Amino acid sequence: MTRPITVGVDGSPASEAAADWAAEEAVRRRLPLRVVHAWQWEPMTVPVVNDRDEQAQWAQSLVREAGQRLAVRHPGLEITAAVLSGEPTTALVRANEDAELLVLGSRGHGALVGFLIGSHAQQVISRVARPVVSVRAPEDQEAARTDGEVVVGQQGSAEDSAAVLRFAFEAAAVRGAPLRAVRAWSLPPVFAYSPLSLRLADEAGGLEPYEKQQLAEALAPWREKFPQVPVREHVEIGSGGQVLLSQTAHAELLVLGRRVRRAPIGTRIGSVAHAALHHARCPVAVIPHD
């Protein structure tokens, strides 16, 4: 089954930017595009729109017009449009299940304050089992690139990061772009590393060479599979979010992983993903993995 790229729209500038990005990505990957709007009947206080049929018609016209606009820009692209019924977060999570990836817009509050991705978007990202891409509103993309690198954050072992690296290499390949692989590390507490880990680090010549070796080993199979993708490696001591964001000045896409796990209360996206989603200037792809 061919999975479409699905984009959620709500009429905002951010969702329009997300729709444009999703259409361009669908063209790159030769996939169909599905434009959706999650709609639930909610009586309003403004009498002129306090009508279920009018709200339903507005939702239908929203996805129809978005699809028509994209069809004009990409005449060869297969586009479908649909209104999803039900609570928005749940509806978008369901839409992600049969999509190659789900694209959502985010709204910004300036370079210093950072970005707000919205309660629905954050809940969706924390719950889905397939990739989600968050795209900034046009006014928040002043430093974004359309001809830059794909930056990927690599953590853990080669097995841990396989899904993230696969997505990043595929994204770089379809763009003809270089890939920058980033691994952050920190000095462990005295008892944080096992004796075996410390022995391996000692054999590698120290902790930093060990981290570089771990990154190189994780990249090796993907470099072999995508020999056309130039790869730059960056290993730096520091917090994952800060190190990753420091490497995105020339990025057109940032790719990072989110371990699938449930917090005691609800779900969470992790500190690195949270920092990237709120502060990165370029679109951010979050890839769930075990």
Automatic annotation (TrEMBL):
One Pfam family recorded for the sequence: Usp
Domain of life: Bacteria
Annotated family: Belongs to the universal stress protein A family.
InterPro entries recorded: Rossmann-like_a/b/a_fold, Universal_stress_UspA, UspA
Name of protein: Nucleotide-binding universal stress UspA family protein
The species this protein was found in: Streptomyces zagrosensis
Entry-linked Gene3D superfamilies: HUPs (3.40.50.620)
UspA domain residues: 1-136, 150-288
